[in-house]
Specification:
heterotrimer; A alpha/beta (490); B alpha+beta (480); C alpha+beta (103); A: 490 residues; alpha/beta; Amidase signature (AS) enzymes; eleven-stranded mixed sheet; 16 helices; 13% strand; C: 103 residues; alpha+beta; Histone, subunit A; two-stranded antiparallel ribbon; flat
């Protein structure tokens, strides 16, 4: 077995028994990045030297046995919207191309405490605005299963890195499906956490009301190990949840079946427009879950059709405000060859932002304007309440809901990029979850024409334990999550 | 055509907390502190930083709301006020818009026409911006002040003259100082006043376009700026023109307001609720405990002083103009054997004079209330003369020390011994025989002069009353 | 519910919004945005179908309430670290072209 093929648990066992060192493991990954990433383009920044330093420190810890955790010495990557001190954090935008934060995000700081090894930062849609990573200000990441296809977005780089064996796990970020959708397109397991479960401090915001950080890895079990390390209350984040963090991996280890669980199948997610193979894979997966002892029932989420307009209106508004700080004054790109201060603002933002970003900022500025606020922003927030109530009602009778993660498998690069509205509509299965703040897990459940199909498991607030359990049990009976693209063996 | 001014005031007051509104950076004097030395990711608007609300700021805001008779809302939310300006690092200010902390209060002011209510529309919390300075072709930004907690107090447009504006501003200023929420230093910009001015035909009740005057850094600027603007707008209407809604600055040198283009001219702040801060839900019992711990406010204290200490209204107002002064006065009265009246004379007189002349504040006074009380008592019981007392007080205030010690060193103890004074009286009369003749011939005003001469000769020690008695007697004896 | 639902975006409005957002759009960009905006805004107006009388906006129901911190001083970030990112800095200040306020 090649080193990159090891699961987190396997790698940890070999590290602890000193059969391999973190330095070796890290070099193996860095080597693969060097060889394969020029084609896949999942990384914006590879911090090789720093990674090896961290690996050596991890080896030291393992040697002395002090403070060793399941993630000690394990190489990972992070989406480029997570602040990493002293390392470029660009959000794949020209406006932050050389921005090095002087502080770490809490999630990164927590991983530092475990002595895991940061390999580098992953490509994304600029500031998280997109569903394919084609809106990156630098380059488009390729789907490792077929380089002509998108990896999904906006955490496309993270998903591709995990799928291609270029990182053992990755920290992604989900605002409107940005972890789940690329996880589905790339055949990896990705978790959108409950809003507030993982601190947002240091996460460069897109939609402050929806942004969440979530792990992406090759199995639900691996995801659970990462979640344990990064979740928890942070006094620096006023929206972070105070409820204690469970030891998810323990629950998974003890889990034997899914008896007693009731899963709802929302009929609004299985309508026209859903690719027939995706539909078939989902039905099979649901049967699999039933065979593990769960009961499947049909439910309804009546306001589903309004989720996309609600999501986008709130996104436009909050993003327009969150992106006002990119002004060329204190950090980042600064165009100073114009005529006075106003030109600094105008030229910096004109050069620094991509087209989709500009479009959304404008729409948000408009939606919040005097005279339009009630019709757009306020209206969206009210319908959002109704969507939340839909979920609350469904969870009165179900422990989880199962849906496809996308209506199709990955689409071709360039296919949807010319029409923004088309791109927005591909988010139909994922955005309602963000509106409600609930968690959702994406697990691979099939292949169609060589491209992965993803199943989405949603649950009520703070139900990560249940979702991971369902995912883990499903993965104990199936092997979709163990299938890899051909570049895996390169 | 008579025009009636319609004026509302917006006050921004920095709250006396140790740390900033949404982060733990220390609140410092941004005029003297080294630039950009009290900053962090939050107050410099770094991507990914998040705000966390300072509980003390909320407490101080509730104090103010209660003192102004407002309704304190148990649920309030924060909002983003979006605009671009280099001293605003996030590109938005966290403030409150819908659902502010407190609304519907009032302040009573004294006008020539009597007592008047100025209604307070709202009191809300927000954060301060950084500071800009300019030189040559550049501007310089210091973020030390960015994120300092700010309280915004907005009135209804209830004021009708610059006098009323001044009365309101003075009273609010005193209340904020009394509550210990703001230091009151207008020059340092710790409290800022903005006037919203419009005029209308006398008798009309419609509201015309108003202008906003900023940068009024003193009470004088406040009244002058308001007066000028009232005049300017009246002239415009009188000549058939229209007043434009704009933001104005005030030039103290010329006494005129001027247009300030440069700030976001379209006042579309696109307010929306701040997603990074959950709603602020207040415990009724907390509000009640704050209410109970409110200090006695200036007006109540003044009335009490008039009654309790039998002071004249003028005196009482002077002594309560500052809480520290009022507390000091009461401490001295409590520790003194004398009546409140002489204490009041000393305080309102010599003591206030010293403060004004030396430019010092109550915070700089080191003279303990015990020592002051003792000194006053020594004058009351004639151990020293009034004049000697003034000398001692000046010494105490300037260099500190002990009253008894100073009296001893300077030999200021008053002497009432008749034989001692009689000796001095005889000497003065013997040395000034022509004046004696003038006096006996009718120039009675010379009596004071004779007494003064005795005071000089005895270096102020001779008790003036005894001197007078003996002097009159001695002069009468010379008549014969 | 506002009746401003069939909003028509034109170049003038796009330019106004761009100015508010400090974006200097090129002529091509402006032209491209107008029909895109119209499409998107028409699409989102589907929300007018939904009866939201008496429905509170979602931002009032947060999992957290009244999250505050004690008034304690924490260490600040060293000035030079902060300024190392500034495009232009001098003598501990962040430097920008002069802000103009007309007299």
């Amino acid at each position: 077995m090649d080193l990159h093929e090891l699961s987190l648990q396997q790698a940890q066992e070999l590290l602890r028994s000193r059969k391999i060192s973190s330095e070796e493991l890290t070099r193996a990954y860095l080597d693969r990045v060097q060889r394969l990433d020029p084609q896949i383009k999942s990384y914006v920044t590879v911090s090789g030297e720093l990674a090896l330093e961290q690996a050596r420190e991890a080896d030291q810890r393992i040697r002395t046995g002090e403070g060793s955790t399941p993630l000690t010495g394990i190489p990972y990557s992070a989406k480029d919207s997570l602040s990493t001190r002293g390392i470029n954090t660009t959000c794949s935008s020209k406006i932050l191309a050389n921005y090095k934060p002087f502080y770490d995000s809490t999630a990164i700081r927590k991983l530092k405490l475990t002595n895991s090894v940061l390999l580098g930062k992953n490509n994304m849609d600029e500031f998280g605005m997109g569903s394919s990573t084609e809106n990156s200000g630098f380059f488009t990441t390729r789907n490792p299963w077929n380089f002509d296809y998108v990896p999904g977005g906006s955490s496309g780089g993270s998903a591709a890195a995990v799928a291609a064996g270029l990182a053992a796990f990755s920290l992604g970020e989900d605002t409107g499906g940005s972890v789940r959708m690329p996880a589905g397109f790339c055949g990896v397991t990705g978790l959108k956490t409950t809003y507030g479960r993982v601190s947002r401090y240091g996460l460069i915001p897109l939609v402050s009301s929806f942004d969440t950080i979530g792990p992406m890895a090759r199995s639900a079990y691996d995801v659970s190990l990462v979640l344990e390390a990064i979740a928890g209350h942070d006094p620096k984040d006023s929206t972070s949840r105070i409820e204690p963090v469970q030891i998810y991996s323990e629950t998974l280890k003890k889990s034997e079946n899914l008896r007693g669980l009731r899963v709802g199948i929302p009929k609004e997610y299985f309508v026209e427009g859903l690719d027939s193979e995706v539909d078939a894979s989902l039905r099979t997966a649901i049967k699999q879950i039933e065979s593990l002892g769960a009961e499947a029932v049909e439910v309804s989420l009546p306001h589903t059709q309004y989720a996309i307009p609600v999501y986008y209106l709130i996104l436009f508004a909050e993003a327009s405000s969150n992106l006002a700080k990119y002004d060329g004054i204190r950090f980042g790109l600064s165009e100073r060859d114009g005529d006075g201060l106003l030109d600094v603002y105008l030229k910096t933002r004109e050069t620094g932002f991509g087209a989709e970003t500009k479009r959304r900022i404008m729409l948000g500025t408009f939606a919040l304007s005097a005279g339009y606020y009630d019709a757009y922003y306020l209206k969206a927030q009210k319908v959002r309440t109704l969507i939340r109530q839909d979920f609350q009602k469904a969870f009165e009778t179900c422990d989880a809901l199962i849906t496809p993660v996308a209506p199709t498998t990955a689409f071709r690069i360039g296919e949807k990029i010319t029409n923004p509205l088309d791109m927005y509509l591909s988010d139909v299965h994922v955005v309602a979850v963000n509106l409600a703040g609930i968690p959702a897990l994406s697990v691979p459940c099939g292949l169609s024409n060589g491209l992965p199909i993803g199943m989405q498991i949603m649950g009520p607030h703070l139900s990560e334990e249940t979702l991971l359990r369902i995912g883990h049990m499903y993965q104990s009976q199936t092997d979709w999550h163990m299938k890899h693209p051909s570049c895996w063996n390169d | 055509m008579k025009y009636e001014p319609v004026i509302g005031l917006e006050v921004h007051a920095e709250l006396l907390t140790k740390s900033k509104m949404f982060c733990g950076c220390q609140v410092v004097d941004s005029i003297t502190a080294k630039p950009n030395h009290y900053i962090c990711p939050v107050c410099t608007g770094q991507p990914g930083a998040l705000p966390v609300l300072n509980k003390k700021a909320v407490e101080l805001a509730i104090r103010v709301g209660l003192a102004l008779g407002c309704e304190i809302h148990t649920e309030s939310i924060f909002a983003r006020k979006n605009y671009f300006y280099p001293d605003l690092p996030k590109g938005y200010q966290i403030s409150q818009y819908d659902q502010p902390l407190a609304t519907d209060g009032n302040i009573q002011i004294e006008t020539e026409a009597g007592i008047k209510d100025v209604r307070i529309r709202r009191v809300h919390l927000e954060e301060d911006t950084g500071k800009l300075s300019h030189a040559d072709g550049n501007s310089f930004i210091d973020y030390n002040r960015s994120g300092v907690p700010l309280l915004e107090i907005v009135t209804e447009p209830d004021m009708r003259s610059s006098e009323e504006v001044k009365a309101y501003a003075t009273k609010l200023h005193a209340i904020l100082r009394y509550l210990g929420v703001n230091s009151g230093n207008m020059e340092k910009g710790v409290i800022r006043f903005e006037a919203n001015v419009s005029v209308r035909e006398a008798g009309s009740d419609q509201l015309n376009t108003r202008t906003e005057i900023k940068n009024l850094n003193s009470f004088r600027a406040l009244t002058q700026g308001t007066d000028y603007e009232i005049w300017r707008q009246s002239e415009i209407y009188a000549s058939g023109g229209m007043v434009e809604q704009e933001t104005l600055g005030f030039n103290e040198a010329t006494g005129k307001t001027y247009s300030q283009r440069g700030k976001e001219s379209a006042h579309d702040y696109r307010y929306f609720p701040e997603p990074d801060l959950p709603p602020l839900v207040l415990d009724r019992s907390w509000i009640d405990s704050i209410r109970e711990s409110l200090p006695e406010l200036p007006e109540t204290k003044t009335s009490r002083f008039i009654e309790q200490y039998e002071l004249k209204p003028q005196e009482a107002r002077l002594l309560t103009s500052e809480k520290a002064l009022a507390d000091y006065f009461e401490a001295v009265v409590a520790k003194s054997k004398s009546q409140a009246k002489p204490v009041s004379s000393w305080m309102a007189g010599e003591f206030m004079r010293y403060l004004n002349d030396s430019g010092k504040n109550m915070e700089d006074v080191t003279l303990s209330s015990e020592s002051f009380a003792r000194l006053i008592d020594m004058v009351t019981d004639k151990t020293i003369s009034g004049n000697a007392g003034k000398t001692v007080l000046a010494e105490l205030l300037k260099n500190g020390g002990d009253p008894a010690q100073i009296i001893k060193e300077k030999g200021l103890a008053q002497v009432s011994d008749e034989s001692f004074i009689q000796e001095a009286v005889m000497k003065v009369l013997n040395d000034n025989s022509s004046e004696v003749e003038k006096y006996l011939a009718g120039k009675e005003t010379l009596l004071q002069w004779f007494i003064g001469q005795v005071a000089r000769a005895t270096k102020g020690k001779a008790d003036p009353n005894v001197t007078k008695e003996l002097m009159i007697k001695a002069l009468e004896e010379r008549r014969n | 519910m506002s009746k401003k639902t069939k909003i028509q975006i034109d170049e003038k409005l796009v330019k106004e919004i761009a100015s508010l957002a400090r974006l200097a759009l090129s002529k091509d960009e402006t032209e491209l945005f107008v029909p895109q905006f119209n499409d998107i805004l028409n699409y989102v107006s589907i929300l007018n179908e939904v009866d939201t009388d008496n429905v509170p906006p979602a931002y009032l129901s947060s999992a957290n309430q009244s999250v505050t911190r004690e008034d304690l001083i924490e260490e600040s970030v060293p000035t030079d670290e902060f300024l190392s990112n500034a495009p232009q800095a001098k003598d501990d200040y962040v430097v920008i072209p002069r802000v103009h306020i007309e007299q």
